[in-house]
Write a structure and sequence with these properties.
CATH class of the largest domain: Alpha Beta
CATH architecture of the largest domain: 3-Layer(aba) Sandwich
Largest sheet: 6 strands, mixed
CATH superfamily of the largest domain: Pyruvate-ferredoxin oxidoreductase, PFOR, domain III
Strand order of the largest sheet: 3-4-2-5-6-7
Helix content: 40-55%
Radius of gyration: 26 Å
Distance between the termini: 50 Å
Number of domains: 3
Structural class: alpha/beta
Number of strands: 10
Strand content: 5-15%
CATH topology of the largest domain: Pyruvate-ferredoxin Oxidoreductase, domain 3
Length: 469
């Protein structure tokens, strides 16, 4: 993309809290030690400075310490803040077991032993964001998964005042209400204040946010959102999460037949299936979506008959059968590109216009030995539109892309996975349950494109053999 003019300044959406918020009862000493944890690049140090400034505005004595090390963006960052009534000689570091308020902006950092050492069950009040931010290791390897959220909270509760702790999905709220993840830490701070963990007046904190001079409106209202979340927990239940890239597909009405097929399902399995059946209708057609839903219903019924009340197998099948059925071929890439609204977004951002170029490596040229991508102009959008309309050719004898090895393997995997699950359901029982859950989730190993994807398929099949199912 080559801009032909200056970009238009983006207007940030700001959710405003108009309600009067009750003042909380203070649950930590007026002279308190605050221990703040997060990841680099999200403003942990800035937030510690805002709190320190707010305390100074109230005439209190403050000493603090920021430990950033080599974290930079994405690594752990820890800040210490001690608030006192007068100046005294003391360490500016919160010692082991000395934290009155344990404010975690990232739950993985908050559950590190070096962080938990600063807490004490009879003293420390914890306010922690439960948002799941993957580490670099999780991104690089499918073997590394996000730990069980319940286990993470339990580890914090063991070291803190568990009955008074507050947990919230700060990133989800920030993206839903402000379209910006940078509001998350101020939401956590607001929750900490309303939970009585911050011995500074709200007016002083908001004044310090103004003095900081960065995204003042957003940060002020993010602070108030955190307060509102604690003051009125029912309020958050009325919010609808914002889905990046969502369009009319997500809101499209399901046919009465599909609605009737969904009826037997419940809970998370129903939620997962109802989203994915819409997508598969757009991906191919409603008949294709019904194949998916028929199988999910079958798994659900078998699971409820053999291990009543448990749903992890049907949830995994709802996720991963969809993943296999909605493989990203040329038709799907064209459809997703066209529905992204890229042209409209660029036109709004660059009033002077842009010149778009696509760098592509068509399979036909690759098969002929052409090793480099070719550069194509925006006129190629017409080809994308044609490909999207030709999705009915997918998997047929007339599909010009369907003869490639990776496409053949992708189609084979759908039936292969269904057969594996069918056989596993015969053995489904409480003692085999977790193994079958693992089997149902194995398609998560299959990622990427071309040779990378084929390597993932080999690994998937090796893991199936290792399970002995």
């Amino acid at each position: 993309m080559v801009p032909l003019g200056e970009p238009k300044k983006k207007e940030r959406r700001v959710y405003t809290v108009e309600r009067a918020l009750p003042e909380p009862a203070l649950r930590v000493p007026a002279e308190a030690s605050l221990y703040l944890m997060g990841i680099g690049g999200t403003g942990v140090v800035t937030l510690n400075q805002i709190l320190g400034t707010a305390a100074l505005l109230e005439g209190k004595h403050v000493c603090g310490l920021d430990q950033t090390g080599l974290s930079q963006k994405g690594g752990p960052v820890v800040s210490h803040l001690k608030i006192g009534g007068d100046a005294r000689e003391a360490s500016n570091k919160v010692a082991a077991g000395e934290a009155d308020a344990y404010i975690g902006f990232d739950i993985l950092v908050a559950t590190q032993p070096t962080s938990l050492d600063h807490a004490r069950p009879d003293r420390t009040l914890a306010i922690v964001s439960t948002s799941q931010v993957p580490t670099g290791a999780m991104v690089a390897s499918t073997d590394v998964r996000f730990p069980d959220p319940a286990g993470l909270q339990a580890s914090i509760n063991r070291c803190t005042r568990k009955d008074e702790n507050v947990y919230l999905d700060a990133l989800g709220l920030a993206e839903t209400l402000f379209d910006d993840h940078m509001a998350a830490n101020l939401i956590v701070l607001g929750a900490a204040y309303q939970a009585g963990a911050v011995p500074i007046a709200a007016e002083a904190i908001e004044e310090a946010i103004g003095l900081n001079g960065v995204s003042v409106a957003m940060n002020t209202h993010a602070f108030r959102v955190g307060r509102l979340l604690v003051a009125d927990p029912e309020w958050a239940k009325s919010l609808k999460p914002r889905r990046v890239g969502a369009d009319e597909t997500a809101a499209r009405e399901l046919s009465p037949e599909i609605e009737a097929m969904l009826a037997p399902l419940a809970g998370e399995t129903r939620r997962l299936a109802s989203i994915r059946v819409r997508e598969l209708s757009e991906y191919q057609d409603e008949a294709y979506a019904r194949q998916y839903l028929d199988f999910v219903k079958h798994v659900w019924a078998s699971e409820q008959a053999r291990v009543p009340g448990r749903t992890k197998v049907s949830e995994a099948v709802a996720r991963h059968l969809f993943k296999l059925m909605a493989y990203k071929d040329e038709y799907e890439v064209a459809r997703l590109h066209l529905r992204s609204g890229l042209a409209a977004a660029l036109a709004a951002e660059y009033p002077g216009g842009v010149r778009i170029q696509y760098n592509l490596h068509p399979p036909m040229l690759r098969a002929l030995g052409w090793q480099k991508k070719i550069r194509l102009g925006q006129w190629f959008d017409g080809v994308f539109r044609m490909l999207a309309r030709l999705k009915g050719l997918r998997g047929t004898a007339l599909d010009p892309f369907g003869y490639a090895r990776v496409r053949r393997v992708e189609r084979e995997l759908i039936g292969e996975y269904r057969t594996l699950i069918e056989k596993a359901l015969i053995e489904l029982a409480p003692e085999s349950y977790e193994r079958i859950v693992t089997l149902a989730g194995l398609p998560d190993l299959i990622r990427g494109y071309e040779d990378v994807k084929l390597a993932g398929v080999t690994r998937f099949r090796d893991e199936v053999k290792a399970l002995g199912l």
